[in-house]
C-alpha cells in the first residue's frame, strides 16, 4: 500500500495543489493594487498626411509622451530572463532563414533575438513549402538580465460614418523595470495611422493610453486612460 | 500442500487486485483530466480553453512553453488584447496582440490587425494570401490568464515521443 510510487504520487499531487493555490493567491493579491497613472500626450508635428494609392488616408505624427506607470508594478508583475539567442541548423539551412540572423549577430542581443524570430518565421514558411522536413535548432544563450513586464501602448480612437470605432495603435513600449516606468519621450509614431477610407481630414481623434500588466502567473490586467484629443489638419501635406 | 496452494492463491488474488486498482486509478486520472478540460470549455466558451505558446514572437511577455488560458466572450475585441487566431490553411493557431481595430457601425463586424510583440512588422505576412484583416470567426479566444513553464510537458511529449512512452510505462508499473 505505502510503496515508493504511492508516496511519490501523494507528494507530487500535494505539491502541485499547493503550487496552484499559491499561484491563485498571488494573482488575487494583484486586485488589491489600485494603480493611479498619470499620462500626457501632445502632438509635436504632423510628419505626413496623405491619401494612399489604395484610397486610404495615412498620417504619421511625432508625439511627446509622458507617463508614470510605476504604481502598476506589484510583486507579481513578471520578472523574467531576457536573452539573445542564435539558432543554428546542424546540416544546412535555407539561406533565407539564415539571412536575418547573420546580419544581426554583431548587434545588441535584443536585435539578435528579434532577428531570430524573423528568421524563424521564414523557416516556418519554408517548412510549409518543403513539407515534413524536420528542422532542429540549437539555442545559444548569450545574455541574461532580470526584467519586469508592463506593456504600454498609445492608441488613436475615432469614429467615422462607416465604423463606430477605429482603434489604431500608434506607439508601444515594453517596460521591463520599475525604474523605467517613468516615460518622458519624443517619439515618431511606430505604426502609421491608416484609416479605412478617407475620413481623416479635420477629424478629431482621441489619444488613449492603454497598459497591460503581464503577471508572473495568473490574470493579465488591463487598463486605460484617455489622455488628450487632437484635431487633424484639414489639408494633406 | 494446502498451505502452499493457499499462499499461491493469496498472492495471485493480490496481484489481480493491484492490477485492477491501477487500471481504475489510471482511468480516474484520464477521466478527471477530461472532466476538467470539458468544464473549462463550458466556462470559457472557447473551443480550446488552454493553449501552449510554441514560438517566441510574444517575448518577453510570453515565452515558449508558457500556458495561456483563453476566454471567448461576446465582448468586442479591442486593441492591445492578446488573441489566439486561426488562419485558413494553417494548422497551428497563433497567439499575438491586436494593434488595430475597425468596428462597423451597422453590423458590428470587426476588422482586426495583429502583431507579435517581438516581431518587426505586423502579421499580414502570416495571414493567407491577400488577407488584410482578421474577422471575428478567425479568433478562437483572448488570453486572460497565464501560467509559466507548464506547457513544456506537452512540448517535450510531442517532440520526443520516447519520453511519452516511458511515462506511460511508469504509470502501468
TrEMBL record, chain A:
<keyword id="KW-1133">Transmembrane helix</keyword>
<feature type="signal peptide">
    <location>
        <begin position="1"/>
        <end position="31"/>
    </location>
</feature>
<dbReference type="GO" id="GO:0045047">
    <property type="term" value="P:protein targeting to ER"/>
</dbReference>
<dbReference type="InterPro" id="IPR007653">
    <property type="entry name" value="SPC3"/>
</dbReference>
<keyword id="KW-0735">Signal-anchor</keyword>
<comment type="similarity">
    <text>Belongs to the SPCS3 family.</text>
</comment>
<dbReference type="Pfam" id="PF04573">
    <property type="entry name" value="SPC22"/>
</dbReference>
<keyword id="KW-0472">Membrane</keyword>
<keyword id="KW-0812">Transmembrane</keyword>
<keyword id="KW-0256">Endoplasmic reticulum</keyword>
<dbReference type="GO" id="GO:0005787">
    <property type="term" value="C:signal peptidase complex"/>
</dbReference>
<protein>
    <recommendedName>
        <fullName>Signal peptidase complex subunit 3</fullName>
    </recommendedName>
</protein>
<comment type="function">
    <text>Essential component of the signal peptidase complex (SPC) which catalyzes the cleavage of N-terminal signal sequences from nascent proteins as they are translocated into the lumen of the endoplasmic reticulum. Essential for the SPC catalytic activity, possibly by stabilizing and positioning the active center of the complex close to the lumenal surface.</text>
</comment>
<keyword id="KW-0732">Signal</keyword>
<dbReference type="GO" id="GO:0006465">
    <property type="term" value="P:signal peptide processing"/>
</dbReference>
Automatic annotation (TrEMBL), chain B:
<comment type="similarity">
    <text>Belongs to the peptidase S26B family.</text>
</comment>
<dbReference type="GO" id="GO:0009003">
    <property type="term" value="F:signal peptidase activity"/>
</dbReference>
<dbReference type="GO" id="GO:0006465">
    <property type="term" value="P:signal peptide processing"/>
</dbReference>
<dbReference type="InterPro" id="IPR001733">
    <property type="entry name" value="Peptidase_S26B"/>
</dbReference>
<dbReference type="Pfam" id="PF00717">
    <property type="entry name" value="Peptidase_S24"/>
</dbReference>
<dbReference type="InterPro" id="IPR019533">
    <property type="entry name" value="Peptidase_S26"/>
</dbReference>
<feature type="domain" description="Peptidase S24/S26A/S26B/S26C">
    <location>
        <begin position="36"/>
        <end position="103"/>
    </location>
</feature>
<keyword id="KW-0812">Transmembrane</keyword>
<dbReference type="InterPro" id="IPR015927">
    <property type="entry name" value="Peptidase_S24_S26A/B/C"/>
</dbReference>
<keyword id="KW-0735">Signal-anchor</keyword>
<comment type="function">
    <text>Catalytic component of the signal peptidase complex (SPC) which catalyzes the cleavage of N-terminal signal sequences from nascent proteins as they are translocated into the lumen of the endoplasmic reticulum. Specifically cleaves N-terminal signal peptides that contain a hydrophobic alpha-helix (h-region) shorter than 18-20 amino acids.</text>
</comment>
<keyword id="KW-0378">Hydrolase</keyword>
<dbReference type="GO" id="GO:0004252">
    <property type="term" value="F:serine-type endopeptidase activity"/>
</dbReference>
<dbReference type="GO" id="GO:0005787">
    <property type="term" value="C:signal peptidase complex"/>
</dbReference>
<keyword id="KW-1133">Transmembrane helix</keyword>
<keyword id="KW-0645">Protease</keyword>
<protein>
    <recommendedName>
        <fullName>Signal peptidase complex catalytic subunit SEC11</fullName>
        <ecNumber>3.4.21.89</ecNumber>
    </recommendedName>
</protein>
<dbReference type="InterPro" id="IPR036286">
    <property type="entry name" value="LexA/Signal_pep-like_sf"/>
</dbReference>
<keyword id="KW-0472">Membrane</keyword>
Amino acid at each position: 500500500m505505502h510503496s515508493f510510487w504511492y508516496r511519490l504520487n501523494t507528494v507530487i499531487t500535494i505539491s502541485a495543489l499547493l503550487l496552484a493555490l499559491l499561484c491563485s493567491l498571488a494573482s488575487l493579491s494583484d486586485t488589491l493594487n489600485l494603480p493611479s497613472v498619470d499620462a500626457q500626450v501632445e502632438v509635436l508635428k504632423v510628419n505626413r498626411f496623405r491619401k494612399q494609392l489604395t484610397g486610404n488616408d495615412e498620417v504619421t505624427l511625432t508625439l511627446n509622451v509622458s507617463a508614470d506607470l510605476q504604481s502598476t508594478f506589484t510583486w507579481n508583475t513578471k520578472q523574467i530572463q531576457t536573452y539573445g539567442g542564435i539558432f543554428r541548423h546542424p546540416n544546412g539551412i535555407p539561406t533565407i532563414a539564415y539571412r536575418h540572423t547573420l546580419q544581426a549577430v554583431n548587434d545588441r542581443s535584443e536585435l539578435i533575438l528579434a532577428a531570430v524570430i524573423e528568421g524563424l518565421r521564414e523557416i516556418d514558411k519554408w517548412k510549409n513549402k518543403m513539407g515534413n522536413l524536420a528542422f532542429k535548432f540549437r539555442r545559444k544563450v548569450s545574455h541574461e538580465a532580470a526584467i519586469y513586464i508592463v506593456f504600454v501602448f498609445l492608441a488613436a480612437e475615432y469614429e467615422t460614418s462607416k465604423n463606430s470605432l477605429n482603434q489604431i495603435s500608434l506607439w508601444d513600449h515594453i517596460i521591463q523595470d520599475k525604474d523605467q516606468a517613468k516615460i518622458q519621450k519624443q517619439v515618431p509614431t511606430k505604426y502609421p495611422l491608416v484609416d479605412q477610407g478617407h475620413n481623416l481630414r479635420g477629424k478629431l481623434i482621441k489619444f488613449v493610453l492603454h497598459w497591460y500588466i503581464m503577471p508572473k502567473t495568473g490574470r493579465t490586467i488591463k487598463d486605460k486612460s484617455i489622455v488628450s484629443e487632437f484635431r487633424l489638419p484639414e489639408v494633406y501635406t | 500442500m494446502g498451505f502452499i496452494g493457499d499462499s499461491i492463491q493469496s498472492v495471485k488474488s493480490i496481484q489481480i487486485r493491484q492490477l485492477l486498482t491501477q487500471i481504475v486509478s489510471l482511468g480516474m486520472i484520464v477521466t478527471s483530466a477530461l472532466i476538467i478540460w470539458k468544464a473549462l470549455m463550458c466556462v470559457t466558451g472557447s473551443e480550446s480553453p488552454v493553449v501552449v505558446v510554441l514560438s517566441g514572437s510574444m517575448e518577453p511577455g510570453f515565452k515558449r512553453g508558457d500556458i495561456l488560458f483563453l476566454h471567448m466572450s461576446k465582448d468586442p475585441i479591442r486593441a492591445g488584447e492578446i488573441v489566439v487566431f486561426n488562419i485558413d490553411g494553417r494548422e497551428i493557431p497563433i497567439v499575438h496582440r491586436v494593434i488595430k481595430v475597425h468596428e462597423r457601425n451597422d453590423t458590428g463586424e470587426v476588422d482586426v490587425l495583429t502583431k507579435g510583440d517581438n516581431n518587426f512588422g505586423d502579421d499580414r505576412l502570416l495571414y493567407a494570401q491577400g488577407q488584410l484583416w482578421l474577422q471575428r470567426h478567425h479568433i478562437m479566444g483572448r488570453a486572460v490568464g497565464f501560467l509559466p513553464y507548464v506547457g513544456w510537458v506537452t512540448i517535450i511529449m510531442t517532440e520526443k515521443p520516447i519520453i511519452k512512452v516511458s511515462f506511460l510505462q511508469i504509470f502501468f508499473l
